[in-house]
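Intended use. Records like the one below are meant for learning the mapping from a protein sequence to its folded structure. Do not use them to infer anything beyond what is encoded.
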Amino acid sequence: MLNNPAEQSVKHTLKQGELTGDSTMDVQSPQELSVFVETVLKQLQSKFEDVSTQIISKLDEMGSRVDDLEKTIGDLLTQSTTLNAQGNNSTSKDDPQMIRE
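Structure written out for the chain above:
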């Protein structure tokens, strides 16, 4: 019979599946509990690393898209400035009203 609350808690069945999707594990000793906890922590670390890699990949992709967008905006501004300058030059030569101003 188990009188120690720590021993009683070790005897309880731990449901590893709730954390990791694996089957239920019946822990019979503190050593088994230690192995169980270590396994769960390794699985969580692996999942964290996978998610981190995915996030970094998405950030890199977004960075490339922002760079492309900045280049396109810069090109459009240059093109607009050039067209405005050409339009002002041709208008002032051809339009007598522009010459008076």
